[in-house]
């Protein structure tokens, strides 16, 4: 796994805006592409995010783990501006995106691609129309140009050999094929940041491994910053460059896989041990 | 009774105030819910209309909806129209026969179809067929995150999904109402002439004399309003689904109920409004 020479602390040490070092948040940082500080979000009486502090590393695969209902997807939707926080800041390439209006948010979203948990392909469109959708919506390209880019992606994602793939509609695709078509749609406009919402949920072990490889390969080949929401620990340690754990509405652990593996945070230890990756005594010794 | 007793039994001002507040809160809850319901629908309608004001205009989506709502509903509207016309003629002849005035059946059926039966029945048919379809489709798109996906591509989901449906329904409803009128008159004609032996000349002459373009203008105007209300109700229910398949089913049921009720309630007020704004023989 690729690792930076120096890493932030294993256990998150939130830094409040205004403290030393925070002035650099408002300028583009070569290492950190997305920086989140003090993010709060409630739905009614449910306080889901309780002061998130998180840095997403440029060009790396950043994994956010956490149990069900911890607010992982809510956090991801904030990164892309699909939800507005109650309090806190989100900087993307040095821009505070929280006060953005709809037009600015539209510009911001062009930096992002999102791969949904169940692909979220448009049922009324075939594979080509699904993949080409962002291009058709954003640019005036000729049909030939669009088809060239679609076919290029189909080749790169090992979909070109599937018989009649271009004209298939989503219900005719397998789970793995749907994920790859969803990824192709997210990649077609060459985003800088790719968000994956639980990409391996509902897949068998072989398909899970294939999707993991696809995420890894996409990150390497396309040079995008990947943010993956997951609760699959095997996948997390297979593809992650940085791992953050969301627990009770805050990031409690943040670091490289090696650092995370030896963390003594009880929630993380329980998560790692129950996943079977590390024997309890081994982790205790670490 | 001692002074102390009377002081104990007298209601404490703060108790009265609290009870009054409780009563007001009790009344305010349904009122607030009602206002919120209409307010949310009005906001969605406003957003859908705002979507007409900026590019892209999504003509293809609009035509697809016209096809789904209009062409797709032709058979059911025609079938219901035919039998509604025939039944109206049967009822009118039964009533008019008391006064030996069966010759007025063409006029009676013509006017009732033009102003009431055609717009209301067409509205109910479109609600049942297209309104339920809209709610189910949008609800399914919501729970499978397709609407979120649209947003991630910087596409306004209201402009993409709701505006074409609302505008298409509003524009196609008068056309479908006229189809209902024509087929209904054919049903009435066949029943009256061939089964009840009403004189053909009298049927046509009375129909031409008593019906007026105004009847059709009123009917078509009403149907356009019905199209607007039923499509907003259907889109609102589908667009705001939260949960899973069960909620999509419930949203579809609510869409059909809300669409049908909105048609029948607004029909009363619209016909009153037309009679005030456009008094005459109708």
Q: What level of helicity do the residues of chain A show?
A: 25-40%
Overall structural domain count of chain B? 1
CATH class of chain A: Alpha Beta
Structural class by SSE content of chain A: alpha/beta
Described by its quaternary structure, the protein is heterodimer
CATH architecture of chain A: 3-Layer(aba) Sandwich
Low-confidence runs of at least 5 consecutive residues of chain B? none
Question: What portion of residues of chain B belong to β-strands?
Answer: under 5%
Contiguous runs where pLDDT drops below 50 for at least 5 residues of chain A: 1-21, 279-286
Give the end-to-end Cα distance of chain A, rounded to a whole number of Å: 20 Å
Spatial arrangement of strands, main beta sheet of chain A: 6-7-8-3-9-10
Order of helices and strands of chain B: HHHHHHHHHH
In N-to-C order, the SSE pattern of chain A is EEEHEEHEHHHEHEHEEHHH
Strand tally of chain B is 0
Helix content of chain B: over 70%
Could you characterize the architecture of this molecule?
The complex is a heterodimer of chains A (286) and B (282). Chain A has 286 residues and is an alpha/beta fold. Chain A has a single domain, classed as 3-Layer(aba) Sandwich (Rossmann fold), CATH 3.40.50. In chain A, the strands form 2 sheets. Chain A has a 6-stranded mixed beta sheet, with helices on both faces. In chain A, α6 links the parallel β7 and β8. The longest helix of chain A has 18 residues. The radius of gyration of chain A is 19 Å and the shape is globular. Chain B is an all-alpha fold and 282 residues long. Helix content of chain B is 84%, strand content 0%. The radius of gyration of chain B is 25 Å and the shape is globular. Chain B is built from 10 helices and no strands. The model of chain B has no long low-confidence stretch (mean pLDDT 91). At the A-B interface, α2, β6 and α3 of A face α6 of B.
What's the topology here?
The complex is a heterodimer of chains A (286) and B (282).
Chain A: E1 32-43, E2 46-57, E3 61-65, H1 72-79, E4 87-92, E5 95-96, H2 102-109, E6 112-115, H3 127-138, H4 143-156, H5 175-187, E7 193-197, H6 205-222, E8 225-230, H7 233-239, E9 242-247, E10 250-255, H8 257-261, H9 266-274, H10 280-285
Parallel strand pairs in A: 3-8, 3-9, 6-7, 7-8
Antiparallel strand pairs in A: 1-2, 1-4, 4-5, 9-10
Chain B: H1 3-9, H2 13-50, H3 59-69, H4 74-98, H5 105-143, H6 146-152, H7 157-195, H8 200-210, H9 213-239, H10 245-277
Helix pairs in contact in B: 2-7, 3-7, 4-5, 4-7, 5-7, 5-8, 5-9, 5-10, 7-9, 9-10
